[in-house]
Known about the structure:
By secondary structure, the protein is of the alpha/beta class. The protein has two domains: about 1-125 and about 250-270, Spore Coat Polysaccharide Biosynthesis Protein SpsA, Chain A (Alpha-Beta Complex), CATH 3.90.550; about 135-205 and about 220-245, Spore Coat Polysaccharide Biosynthesis Protein SpsA, Chain A, CATH 3.90.550. About 30% of the residues lie in helices and about 25% in strands. It is globular, with a radius of gyration of 18 Å.
Amino acid sequence: MKAVILAGGYANRLRPVTDNGRIAKTLLPIDVEGKTQPILYFLLDKIHSLKGVDEIIVVVNDLYHNQIKKACQDYNSKINFTLVSDGSNSPEQAKGANYAILKANNTIPYSYDEKILVMASDNYFEFDLNELVKKYDDLASQSPRPINMVSSKVYPDSDREYIAKNFGILNINKNKRIISLDEKPGIENLKTNNVSLAIYLFNRADLDKIETYMEQNKMDKKKCDSLGYFINYTIENSPTYTYEIDGEFCDIGTPDEYKKLAPLHNDLQY
């Protein structure tokens, strides 16, 4: 299995926490059970707990390439790293998640046909990735077609306005199969409280379609950039299921969210 970490963003919403853009978001320190480490290391620990991962592909941008490269080298991984840049050097040049996945997919040999884990570089979560993979494998073994899986969390009604503005929202059937994904629909269009989390398992055949998808939608920047729209594209042909998680999840996208996980003694300003 390949694991892809999307670390090519510029985290404009997190300023000034990132020293006004001087620090890659994924290298911000967080406190996990008294252990202070970069967000990236937390994710790498999670990936290292998985069985069968033979490569970690980290997609970066040119601005933070050297920072993240050094952090990966210092991590002393037991799994091979591949760093690939999306070629951008500023927020104005940002390429989006779909382009990052395309760059990662292009590094994987054409003959590779196993599942691929894709995750954002700014998430904190408590659940075990092995359980996600087990659920995927169980469903895949029963399906006549390749499947995909999207991690999700059902939020309380008190958070409806927050999730409607900040997340993709999943509409699912009774079998946990995703019917559609509404990308940041707004409170007036919110149909469920089931939030799409940026942790996915894709089959290789569908990832191979991402270049065609982007070419078809090149005149629509939102569809071209956002992974949620690509998932809607793959749903048309591939059964896509939700894996509803228990426990804490945090999308570290704003200073307020970062504050929840920031170390007690922290020089960063927020």
